[in-house]
Amino acid sequence: MTKETKEAIPRDEVAASLATSQELGTEYNSAVADALAERIEHTVDERVAAQLAERLAETQGQPKRQDIRITSLRFALAVVSMVVAVPLTLLVAGASEPGMAVGMLWLGIAAVNGIFVFATRE
């Protein structure tokens, strides 16, 4: 936030509004108060917009936490699949029809990974 934004309503302006209210009398108090309130509201809106713009600019280049988490889960599933698949392939290779058994094993592992990727896509 710049110094200019912080000093958008100088103290002398507030003091001038108070003096004007005292000079004009009680019948103009609400008009002076409304004008000052509008000025303050405008300044607050500008400050909030500036802060939101700063935060948006800071976060635009960063991936979302959920994206990082899903990517991590996908990687973990792939690693676990490989760790499980290799020993199971060696175990199934001793079956009576190893080609069919190994094919079904890898098809099942691919299906689990595919379903997970499909379920976690955006």
TrEMBL record:
Domain of life from the UniProt record: Bacteria
Membrane-spanning intervals of the chain: 73-93, 99-119
Keyword tags: Membrane, Transmembrane, Transmembrane helix
UniProt protein name: Integral membrane protein
Organism: Lipingzhangella halophila
